[in-house]
C-alpha cells in the first residue's frame, strides 16, 4: 500500500504516529469495489464473508460458515469465497492430512483456513489501534495478526499455504515445501515459544528440522531453527 508506506516513512517509521485513516480509506475502497465488480455473485454475501475474517481468526483456526451467519453453509457462501480468492483479497491455507510429498496429493480441500491479503487491512477491519497492539503484550489477537503477516509473506515468496492438524491434539500453523523437504513452521507473536503441537509433529513425522518464527533472534536448538519474524521471507 504505497500511501501507507509513504506515511510510515514520513513519520520516522513510528507506528504510533501512523495515520490509520489511510488504511481505513483503502478498506472502504475495497468494500466499494466488491459491490461494483461482483457481477453475478451476491455482493452482500461477499461483504459478509470478508467482514467475518477478524472473528474467523479469533474464534477458531478452520474457516466456519456459521461464523459468517448463523446457520450459514458452504452452498450459501462458497461463491462469495471463490470471488474473494480470485480477487486475491483472501489467502487460502489448505489442510494436508499427510505431510509428505507431493503435498498436493494429500490435501483436504473442504478443510481450510483463510487469511487477509494484507495484515494492515486486517488491523483496520478489526478496528484495532496500533497502540493497543504495541502496548498490550497479553493481547491474544496479536497471535492471529502475526500468523496473517507470515501467511502473506509466504505467498509473496511463492511458498504455498498448507497446515497440519491432528484433531484437538495438535496443529502446525504452516507446512513449507522447501529444498530440504516438508518443514513444519510454527508462528509465535512473542518470546514464549513453548509448543506442544510442534513436539507432537516432530515425534510422529521426524522432519529434517522445524522452523519457529518469533520475536527471538536466529538460533538452532533441539532440531528447531529459530527465525525472527522480520526475516520470515528468508526461510
Outline the structure in words.
This protein is α/β, with parallel strands linked by helices. 42% of the residues lie in helices and 20% in strands. It contains 10 helices and 9 strands. It has a 5-stranded mixed β-sheet with strand order 5-6-7-9-8. A hairpin with a 5-residue loop joins strand 3 (162-165) and strand 4. The longest helix has 17 residues, at 21-37. The radius of gyration is 18 Å and the shape is globular.
Number of helical segments with 4 or more residues: 10
Cα Rg: 18 Å
Give the tally of β-strands.
Answer: 9
Helix content: 40-55%
List the main descriptive attributes of the protein structure presented here.
single chain, 235 residues, alpha/beta, five-stranded mixed sheet, four-stranded mixed sheet, 10 helices, 9 strands, 20% strand, globular
Quick structural gist:
The chain has 10 helices and 9 strands. The chain has 235 residues and is of the alpha/beta class. β6, α10 and β7 form a beta-alpha-beta unit.
Break the fold down into its secondary structure elements and pairings.
Layout: H1 2-10, H2 21-37, H3 43-51, H4 53-59, H5 65-68, H6 74-86, E1 90-96, E2 107-116, H7 119-125, H8 130-135, H9 141-156, E3 162-165, E4 171-172, E5 174-178, E6 181-187, H10 196-205, E7 210-214, E8 219-221, E9 224-228
Helix pairs in contact: 2-3, 2-7, 3-6
Amino acid at each position: 500500500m504505497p500511501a501507507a508506506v509513504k506515511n510510515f516513512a514520513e513519520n520516522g517509521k513510528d507506528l504510533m504516529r501512523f495515520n490509520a485513516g489511510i488504511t481505513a480509506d483503502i478498506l472502504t475502497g475495497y468494500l466499494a469495489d466488491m459491490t461494483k465488480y461482483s457481477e453475478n455473485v451476491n455482493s452482500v454475501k461477499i461483504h459478509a464473508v470478508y467482514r467475518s475474517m477478524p472473528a474467523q481468526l479469533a474464534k477458531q483456526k478452520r474457516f466456519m460458515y456459521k461464523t459468517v451467519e448463523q446457520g450459514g453453509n458452504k452452498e450459501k457462501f462458497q461463491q462469495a469465497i471463490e470471488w474473494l480468492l480470485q480477487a486475491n483479497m483472501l489467502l487460502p491455507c489448505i489442510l494436508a492430512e499427510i505431510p509428505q510429498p507431493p503435498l498436493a496429493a494429500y490435501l483436504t480441500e473442504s478443510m481450510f483456513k483463510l487469511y487477509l491479503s494484507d495484515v494492515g487491512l486486517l488491523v483496520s477491519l478489526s478496528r484495532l489501534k496500533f497502540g493497543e497492539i504495541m502496548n498490550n503484550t497479553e493481547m491474544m489477537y496479536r497471535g492471529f495478526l502475526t500468523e496473517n503477516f507470515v501467511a502473506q509473506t509466504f505467498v509473496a515468496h511463492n511458498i504455498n499455504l498448507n497446515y497440519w492438524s491432528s484433531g484437538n491434539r495438535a496443529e502446525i500453523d504452516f507446512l513449507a515445501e522447501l529444498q530440504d523437504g516438508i518443514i513444519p513452521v510454527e508462528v509465535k507473536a512473542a518470546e514464549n515459544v513453548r509448543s506442544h503441537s510442534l513436539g507432537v509433529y516432530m515425534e510422529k513425522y521426524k522432519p529434517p528440522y522445524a522452523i519457529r518464527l518469533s520475536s527471538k533472534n536466529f538460533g538452532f536448538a533441539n532440531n528447531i531453527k529459530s527465525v525472527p519474524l522480520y526475516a520470515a521471507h528468508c526461510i
